[in-house]
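FAQ

Q: What does a record look like?
A: Structure on top, sequence underneath. For example:
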């Protein structure tokens, strides 16, 4: 029982001693210079006491205090010099360790900063690439939509020309409208778009030429379609004014029925008495009434040439015919020019197909 208790107490003492040694070791590692100085002072004091003790021995004879001092100096100077060397070495060593630690900390900080910068650059590059892709995709989609709209507009222009040829006295129009898509197209930041196309197509040495050519063709067709649409609108306004005036004047023709010259148009007026003459049937009016009526009045001119009312009605019919011919001639010239431009833009050059191919390949 006593042996086990003794062993237990011994174990506790051993543990405490080991803890003390560990604690002392930590202190020494934390404050090496302090412990070195303390050790040096202790060694110096011990040496001094040792010298004094030796000086008091009977066999150690010193004749004076100077001899004691010389003896003390002779014994301590090497010790002091030795510890001075050690302290100097420790100072340089500690400085070396500090410099090394500082260099390691600086390298670690530099590495962390580089990592941080690389991460930021990767994030910025991803954001930039995503922005480039968005611009490129929007440009592609709007481009394809515009090409499709231009082709539909070309079909609408062709239909308008056919309708004008069929009936130049009708208010025909180009029905297709593409202003909305083009407004979106104009809002694109073309500087960023240029960088985007460069980023995704820099493998193609002609990418810039193709890019600028696509934009130029879109502007080219937009200007043409806007121009022809505005011209048709202005022409229709002018035509409507003329046709409205002709409709107002047409009632004068009915005055022929109330004159002694009614027999000249009696046959032609049958079937027209209850008609509401609009711009849609001026062509029919011209062929079925006006031309025969003019022929009848002209053939009877010698018989009634001295009668004022006859001359008035005859001049009116001829003037009416001239006005209708003017509308027809104007429409004919306009339509021929329109067909010529349409064929050049949509049949001969095939520019839209080339640009459509460019957009389809833009990935």
């Amino acid at each position: 029982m006593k042996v086990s208790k003794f062993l237990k107490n011994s174990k506790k003492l051993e543990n405490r001693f080991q803890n003390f040694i560990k604690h002392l070791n930590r202190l020494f590692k934390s404050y090496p210079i302090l412990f070195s100085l303390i050790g040096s002072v202790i060694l110096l004091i011990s040496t001094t006491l040792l010298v004094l003790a030796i000086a008091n021995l009977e066999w150690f004879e010193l004749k004076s205090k100077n001899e004691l001092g010389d003896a003390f100096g002779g014994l301590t100077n090497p010790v002091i010099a030795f510890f001075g060397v050690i302290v100097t070495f420790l100072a340089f060593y500690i400085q070396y360790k500090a410099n090394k630690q500082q260099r390691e900390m600086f390298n670690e900080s530099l590495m962390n900063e580089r990592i941080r910068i690389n991460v930021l650059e990767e994030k910025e590059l991803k954001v930039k690439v995503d922005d480039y892709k968005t611009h490129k995709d929007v440009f592609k989609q709007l481009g394809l939509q515009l090409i499709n709209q231009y082709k539909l507009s070309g079909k609408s222009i062709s239909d308008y020309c056919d309708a004008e040829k069929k009936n130049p006295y009708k208010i025909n129009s180009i029905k297709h409208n593409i202003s909305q898509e083009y407004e979106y197209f104009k809002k694109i930041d073309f500087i960023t778009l240029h960088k985007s196309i460069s980023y995704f197509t820099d493998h193609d040495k002609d990418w810039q030429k193709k890019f600028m050519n696509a934009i130029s063709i879109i502007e080219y067709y937009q200007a043409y379609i806007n121009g022809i649409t505005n011209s048709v609108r202005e022409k229709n306004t002018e035509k409507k004014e003329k046709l409205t005036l002709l409709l107002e004047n047409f009632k004068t023709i009915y005055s022929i029925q109330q004159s002694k010259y009614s027999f000249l148009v009696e046959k032609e007026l049958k079937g027209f008495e209850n008609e509401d003459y609009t711009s849609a049937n001026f062509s029919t009016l011209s062929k079925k009434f006006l031309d025969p009526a003019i022929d009848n009045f002209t053939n009877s001119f010698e018989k009634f040439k001295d009668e004022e009312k006859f001359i008035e009605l005859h001049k009116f019919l001829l003037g009416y015919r001239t006005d209708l011919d003017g509308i027809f001639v104007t429409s004919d010239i306009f339509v021929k020019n329109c067909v010529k431009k349409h064929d050049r833009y949509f049949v001969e050059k095939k520019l839209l197909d080339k640009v459509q191919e460019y957009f389809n390949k833009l990935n």
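Q: Is there anything notable about this one?
A: The longest helix spans residues 65-166.
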